[in-house]
Specification:
The complex is a heterodimer. By secondary structure, chain A is of the alpha+beta class. Chain A folds into two domains: about 1-225, P-loop containing nucleotide triphosphate hydrolases (Rossmann fold, 3-Layer(aba) Sandwich); about 230-345, Nucleic acid-binding proteins (OB fold (Dihydrolipoamide Acetyltransferase, E2P)). In chain A, about 25% of the residues lie in helices and about 35% in strands. In chain A, a hairpin with a 2-residue loop joins strand 1 (about 1-15) and strand 2. Chain B folds into two domains: about 40-315, MetI-like fold, CATH 1.10.3720.10; about 320-510, MetI-like fold, CATH 1.10.3720. Chain B is built from 22 helices and two strands. The chains are: A alpha+beta, B mainly alpha. Chains A and B meet through strand 6 of A and helix 8 and helix 9 of B.
């Protein structure tokens, strides 16, 4: 059964529409993610699910109950939704135990204590009951914020850029840790982030949001290899977009060579854009080579080269560190993969 | 470098000690026996002083909390018609010295005043036919002080509510609190340190108040000190009363410092989101408007209207050459004190920046303690050492040159300026330090690396950047000095009058209508810092939205 269902959700601020006709379904126990650049409307959507924003169109359904329509917004405190904020928002005047207890204060004291103990063990901070938030490190505060949100066993957990204030290197491992905790508790969750590594590490399914519209909904693999449009293609991962002309149902003509393709989305014309991931570009030294190396970045086990083709198109190539080319050198390009993603030419 | 540092530190320490002199002088007298008068005081009025001061503080404390906290919450977290105006208009009562509002309400509410007169006209009652509350009472003093001191709590509570991470309130909603529960369980406890800071500032002003309680005949420590010094002529007993008052002040000072420290921990977020104000529904909105306007009316508009009408009725007979001298004296004295305080503040502020050490910080702290000390205490605290100095000098010159020098220090404007600096140095030091703090040390380094000498850094970088702060520092002290009553009253040279003293004298002679014009002028100048304050508030609002 679907735990969270958004249908045709639209949110307006005065005359500007922040979110357009978004449909999302999250199944019980799944971890979903809204991914997009800042200002794309993802936080607005999250806040609407929490009950902080009013809908102008559509409806939100939680656990079979309608919680938001343009006519009525169920008060946040009655939704049974947990939320973790980017700045953790721990109550600085309460001890860790009181912070976690805050949402279950109506339960018997015994049950509260039991739950606090259980959650502190879950987030690997046992014995922290009497500490205060300012005595904890950022990562610890974050785990307490998670424990506090989980205490009332919410029907849905919302996480607003939960790793945003952590060091980049830490984010992925934290995301994995949190994912394990959520899976262990069987929590349905929706995460908002602008960092795709975080999304990939944490979520079962991901929705890419741009300019208030849902661009694509799918697994990380689908987003990476089968983007539905040019925005998703350029936003997720690295890659080059080169011009193409559809020849027939299986072949697309490009400057390099005719390529096999998938057509996930409706194509408006036979003039298209082909996404080429750098790991699929192979370089070699040949006498009639025509692609010019314009820059290179050392990536440890690999070099990332930027090439300029004879028709001025740019191409990225990832090669192992043993294959070294110099800037200004001309190389031959060979494409390793058989099937490429094709999207409409215009970026919407 | 070593010697330079040493000279700096010695200079700073000397300044700090000089500023602390009155406090030391007052406490030194604790050990001087004054048995007879002290016993007399203890047997007769001391318990009155204690109880009245206690009741007054308690009453004013409750009053400023009941006014300041709800108003701050309404203006920062709710939306209702006129909110943006009330947000800064509610600061206006700060411009009203308590003694002036006390005179005004007395004039309005006493038997011959407009309120009772129209009441009699309406009902046909005569003298003695009806009961009317007497404003000249302890309750009256509490009301007057609360009406003009609540902005301290309002201002700090409002800032605390605005600073709170909006996420903290939202998280409490997701954990099952409604809006009002969120306020009582989260917002209010988080704002508590700020509210206590505001409360202790308001109570320091209450303890320092002389004009209101003197006029209302409420015997507190300040009036007691005045009476013992002048009426009984016992300096030791007066000092001992002052020392007792000071110990109350120190408790408040500790409370204030502690809650400021605590507030740092309560700072919950570095991420600011636009506050979504709670829109108040029809009747709630009307209550909010009613509450805000009533406070504003009673604390500012009604007294100012009364003062204006008195001034209009009397200005022809009042404005003469002696009145112009009065203004000249007031402005000149206030300006001199303000410039003097600025120079000291610059020396202290730069000393702290250039040669930071625990000793220097301590010196700055010591020098800025005066803001908590009642004017009456400072007055006798400076009189004691300087009167002694004058006596010694006269003794010396008598024996050497067979002539007297007169009261070189204690009888001149010098002692007044000195006392003002003890009391108000903190104001200008705080402003200067805030201005200096905004100039990052890297800017100095950048200037030096681009070929500026240290003094060129001061003139070419700091001065232009600090211009605003310096002006503010001068202005704030200027207005404070203009309003100051008890120290001026005690320390002024013979026949030297200021606006504040003249207002006091006229009011004491029951010539309230004539006191209107000088009082109105003091209030009008007092509005300047309020405007400055509200401007800095509106600027902080702009930054508040992400």
């Amino acid at each position: 059964m679907s735990q969270l269902m958004l249908s045709q959700v639209e949110i307006c601020y005065g005359n500007t529409t922040a979110v357009h006709a978004v449909d999302i379904t999250v199944e019980q126990g799944q971890i979903a993610c809204l991914l997009g650049p800042s200002g794309c409307g993802k936080t607005t959507l999250l806040r609407a699910i929490a009950g902080f924003e009013r809908l102008s169109q559509g409806s939100i359904n939680l656990n079979g109950q309608v919680i938001s329509t343009p006519q009525s917004t169920l008060a946040t405190e009655q939704r049974n939704i947990g939320m973790v904020f980017q700045d953790y928002a721990l109550f600085p005047h309460l001890s860790i135990a009181d912070n976690i207890r805050f949402g279950i204060r109506k339960q018997p004291t015994k049950a509260q204590q039991q739950r606090v103990k259980e959650l502190l063990e879950l987030v690997s901070l046992p014995g922290y009951e009497q500490r205060y938030p300012h005595e904890l490190s950022g990562g610890q505060q974050q785990r307490i914020a998670l424990a506090r949100a989980l205490a009332p066993k919410p029907a849905l957990l919302l996480l607003d850029e939960p790793f945003g204030s952590q060091d980049t290197e830490l984010r992925e491992s934290l995301a994995r840790e949190v994912r394990e905790i959520l899976k262990q508790e069987g929590i349905t969750a929706l995460l908002v982030t602008h960092d795709q590594h975080e999304a990939f590490a944490m979520a079962d399914e991901i929705g890419v949001l741009q300019a208030g519209r849902l661009q694509q909904w799918g697994s990380a693999y689908e987003l990476y290899y089968q983007p539905q449009n040019a925005f998703v293609a350029s936003f997720i991962g690295q890659g080059s977009l080169i011009a193409g002309q559809i020849i027939d149902a299986t072949q697309v003509e490009t400057y390099l060579e005719p390529l096999g393709y998938t057509t996930p989305a409706a194509l408006h014309s036979d003039k298209v854009t082909v996404l080429i991931r750098p790991e699929h570009v192979q370089l070699s030294r040949q006498t009639d080579a025509s692609a010019l190396i314009t820059s290179k970045i050392f990536r440890g086990n690999e070099y990332l080269y930027t090439l300029e083709l004879a028709n001025q198109e740019q191409l990225l190539a990832l090669c192992s560190s043993e294959q070294i080319y110099a800037i200004g050198e001309k190389v031959a390009v060979n494409l390793a993969e058989r099937i490429y993603a094709v999207v409409n030419r215009e970026v919407n | 470098m070593e010697i330079k540092n040493f000279v700096w530190r010695a200079l700073l320490l000397c300044m700090a000690l000089l500023t602390a002199l009155p406090i030391l002088a007052v406490f030194a007298y604790v050990f001087v026996p004054s048995a007879e008068v002290w016993e007399h005081l203890a047997a007769t009025v001391l318990s009155d002083y204690l109880l009245n001061t206690l009741y007054l503080s308690l009453g004013v404390g409750i009053g400023v909390l009941l006014l300041g906290v709800p108003l701050a919450w309404l203006c920062s977290m709710c939306e209702f018609p006129g909110r943006a105006w009330f947000e800064w208009l509610l600061l206006l009562p700060l411009a009203m010295p308590a003694y002036i509002i006390a005179y005004t309400y007395t004039g309005m509410l006493d038997f011959a005043g407009p309120v009772q007169t129209s009441l009699r006209e309406l009902t046909g009652w005569g003298y003695g036919d009806y009961w009317f509350p007497n404003i000249r009472s302890l309750t009256g003093a509490i009301l007057m002080l609360a009406l003009v001191l609540f902005p301290y709590v309002y201002l700090l509570a409002r800032a605390a509510f605005l600073e709170q991470s909006i996420c903290v309130l939202e998280v409490s909603r997701t954990l099952g609190c409604n809006q009002w529960q969120s306020f009582f369980r989260v917002a209010l406890p988080l704002a508590r340190p700020a509210i206590i800071t505001g409360l202790s500032l308001a109570l320091m002003e209450t303890l320092a108040d002389f004009g209101t309680v003197q006029y209302f005949g409420v015997t507190t420590f300040t009036t007691g000190i005045f009476r013992t010094w002048y009426g009984l002529g016992d300096h030791a007993a007066a000092s001992q009363l002052a020392a007792l008052l000071m110990s109350f002040v120190f408790i408040l000072l500790l409370l204030e410092q502690a809650s400021r420290r605590r507030a740092r921990y309560y700072h919950s977020s570095s991420k600011y989101a636009q506050i979504k104000r709670i829109p108040l529904k029809a009747w709630q909105a009307w209550w909010a408007v009613f509450f805000c306007s009533l406070t504003l009316l009673l604390g500012f508009i009604v007294p100012v209207t009364q003062l204006t009408s008195w001034s209009i009725a009397n200005w022809r007979t009042q404005i003469d050459s002696s009145f112009l001298t009065l203004i000249q004296h007031s402005l000149g004295l206030a300006m001199a004190a303000a410039v003097f305080a600025l120079i000291l503040a610059l020396i202290l502020g730069y000393g702290k920046r250039l040669s930071p050490s625990p000793l220097v910080s301590l010196a700055a702290r010591l020098a800025s303690m005066g803001y908590a000390i009642p004017g009456t205490v400072i007055a006798i605290g400076v009189l004691i050492p300087f009167a002694w100095l004058d006596t010694q000098l006269n003794y010396l010159s008598q024996s050497l040159f067979n002539s007297k020098l007169g009261l070189l220090f204690s009888g001149s404007l010098f002692i007044l300026l000195f006392a003002y600096n003890v009391r108000f140095l903190a104001v200008s030091l705080q402003t200067v330090e805030a201005g200096l703090g905004k100039i990052k040390p890297t800017l100095d380094n950048a200037g030096r690396s681009l070929g500026l000498s240290p003094s060129a850094v001061l003139w070419k970088l700091h001065m232009p950047l600090m211009k605003g702060s310096l002006l503010t520092a001068i202005l704030l002290v200027f207005v404070d000095v203009l309003k100051e009553l008890p120290a001026t009253l005690i320390l002024r040279p013979f026949n030297f009058n200021t606006l504040a003293v003249r207002t006091y004298e006229l009011a004491s002679d029951e010539r309230l209508a004539e006191a209107g014009l000088p009082a109105l002028m003091i209030v009008a100048t007092g509005i300047i810092p309020v405007i400055l304050l509200s401007r800095s508030i509106s600027r902080s609002r702009a930054g508040g939205s992400l």
